[in-house]
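User: Run a structure prediction on this.
Assistant: Running it now.
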Amino acid sequence: MLTEEVLVQKFIAVVKMRCPKLGELLQYCHVELVNSYWGCPPKLIQHFVVYYPNLLFASLNAHKDIFRGVAQDLGVSDAVCMNATRIIRDPASTLKEKNPILWLELQWVAVPTKKGNSHLDWDLPHSD
């Protein structure tokens, strides 16, 4: 069985092959494989989560079907996209206490960027 890290790397590689422009956008995102158990007896359900910055919402939302197709081709049930900026800024979020490593990863993804701030976003494509 493949490890989670290898599956995430394969997911990114296949997305880059199928849609190079979308693959370029993934460098500004954080991709994770999430395991959950459902039912009785518990059955393992896996899905990819693509955490993206607020600026890439329109670009990634238009290609959700590609993510889902790649996930299913790799034997994973689904792929979902989540706005890292909203998660980090949510005052009711307990992510920082429950999963501090993921919280720090999302901080890197959710860095506020504006055109002209070259020290913040070197080649970040803008969706406005």
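Residues 4-109 form a domain with the GMP Synthetase; Chain A, domain 3 fold (CATH 3.30.300).
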